[in-house]
Amino acid sequence: MTDTMEAFDFEAVANELRPQCEALIAQYERPRSALLPIMHLFQARQGYVSQEAMEFAAGLLQLTRAEVEATVSFYTLFFRKPVGKYVLQVCRGLMCELRGADDILAYFREKLGIGHLETTEDGMFSYEEVECLASCNRATCMQVNLEFVYDLTPAMIDDMLAAMRAGTYHVKPMVQTQTPGRTWKVKQDGEVGTGRKSPGTRTSSDPNNAGGVGDPTGVIMLDTIVLRNAAFAARSRERFVRDASQISEIIDEDGGIINAGH
Ligand code: FES
């Protein structure tokens, strides 16, 4: 831990955040729906989602640790190890590739002197190459501490890194409560769960792989939906009717009115 970092008291922070967590839980029909916002709360305070934070959330939401970890590990929005003040997540998806992402990725690696899932020695930058950030119309793009930056060019990268080093960049640096290691890769076994990234990416055996090309998870999910169509349709309709109770009339696929009386 560097001199500028104060000791982080997880228990004190958890007690402080508990009322906010409870208010979040109260907003949802099922407590588990509050998991993502609760994890964001802790990440904002601790700089990453620690094992303690996941345990705390599991206890609060009456989930298993594995369920919490499976959810947290699915999203590149959450960092499961201490990271740099600026987390640079650069898209390597197909659209960005077509618009020159290879050159952008290479430029970042050269300028930072680090590779995928690594942090610079001074703890300033963490770098990750991620799958589609759903902003393909502004490729090539990235997120800086989860804020989008679009239409990247080498000149923009130079300006961005200089501003971050000078402390003048418009996106706030991450909170750091621990000195980050040189890599924020998660180990395959032992350190986190079973080593599988999450049940959502069933065939991805590398917990650091965001999925993408060659990952048949989407096909598996589609099969599941098709095979369990009746059950899904019934549940979707139930929610649709409940959520849309303010709307005067909703017609189902057979032409019948499914919210008569509302
Ligand atoms: S491929 Fe980069 S945002 Fe979609």
Fill in the CATH topology of the domain at 86-166. Answer: Glutaredoxin
What is the oligomeric state here? single chain
Distance between the termini: 59 Å
Shape: globular
Give a nutshell description of this structure.
The chain contains nine helices and five strands; from the N terminus they run ααααβααββββααα.
Fold topology:
Elements: H1 10-26, H2 35-46, H3 51-61, H4 65-74, E1 86-91, H5 94-98, H6 101-112, E2 118-119, E3 125-130, E4 142-144, E5 147-149, H7 154-166, H8 217-227, H9 229-243
Parallel strand pairs: 1-3
Antiparallel strand pairs: 1-4, 2-3, 4-5
Q: Can you walk through the features of this model?
A:
This protein is α+β, with helices and mostly antiparallel strands and 262 residues long. Helix content is 40%, strand content 8%. Among the domains are: 10-74, Arc Repressor Mutant, subunit A; 86-166, Glutaredoxin, CATH 3.40.30. It is built from 9 helices and 5 strands. It has a 5-stranded mixed β-sheet with strand order 2-3-1-4-5, with helices on one face. The termini are far apart. The structure holds FE2/S2 (inorganic) cluster (FES). FE2/S2 (inorganic) cluster (FES) binds next to helix 5. FE2/S2 (inorganic) cluster binds at residues 91, 93-96, 132-136, 139, 141.
